[in-house]
Design brief:
CATH topology: Nucleotidyltransferase, domain 5
CATH class: Alpha Beta
Radius of gyration: 19 Å
Helix content: 25-40%
Number of domains: 1
Strand order of the largest sheet: 3-2-1-4-5
Structural class: alpha/beta
Order of helices and strands: HEEEHEHEHH
Strand content: 15-25%
CATH superfamily: Ribonuclease H-like superfamily/Ribonuclease H
Number of helices: 5
Number of strands: 5
Distance between the termini: 41 Å
């Protein structure tokens, strides 16, 4: 008997040999020394996607059809030791090398401890010489995820929880930033 389930898609471009090599490298590092980082974008008009209704009636809500809504980007790290988000920074717009390195210098480095390994994806703005220098200046190592392997980055799941919580409590705050700060403080 078959059942209908949602598909889980994998990236065709990912390379199993690089994923295996990454896993071997990761196994050599004490788990409590791992720090994962990533960015996530938030639409200022995020809303809950579910709600209560009378049986037999449809449920509607309004949202803007304008695709040019302002977006907030959050950069943060996830400590494998504390299982918490650390060093969050949010701003309007997109991430670039300058903003990313500013975040490392002003937010991440004060939270890093010597001998930690900072793990990030292969975004172009993660690959500057300055990024490597900053991480090394904190007596930490830098490790890149294998290409197309977000499933190896636990902060991705944290972002899902953060976004779902923001959607649930968004209406309780007049200001989106206040809502976001409230959620990030408890993650």
């Amino acid at each position: 008997m078959a059942s209908h389930i949602k598909k889980r898609f994998l990236y065709e471009e990912r390379r199993e040999d690089l994923r295996e090599e990454y896993q071997r490298t990761l196994n050599q590092i004490p788990k409590e020394n791992l720090v994962y980082l990533d960015e996530s974008g938030f639409d200022l008009n995020m809303k809950k996607e579910c709600g209560w209704k009378v049986r037999g009636q449809r449920l509607y809500d309004n949202r803007s059809g304008n695709r040019k809504n302002k977006r907030i980007t959050v950069i943060s790290a996830y400590s494998n030791q504390t299982k918490q988000l650390i060093a969050p920074m949010y701003f309007e717009g997109n991430t670039d090398t300058e903003i990313f390195n500013q975040w490392i210098e002003e937010f991440l480095i004060p939270d890093l401890k010597p001998n930690q390994t900072v793990i990030m994806d292969n975004a172009a703005f993660h690959k500057s010489q300055r990024t490597t220098e900053l991480i090394n200046s904190a007596n930490c190592q830098l490790l890149y995820l294998p290409p197309y392997s977000p499933d190896f980055n636990p902060i991705e799941q944290k972002w899902g929880h953060v976004k779902n919580t923001v959607k649930k409590i968004r209406d309780k705050f007049k200001d989106f930033n206040e809502c976001l700060e409230n959620v990030l403080c408890y993650r």
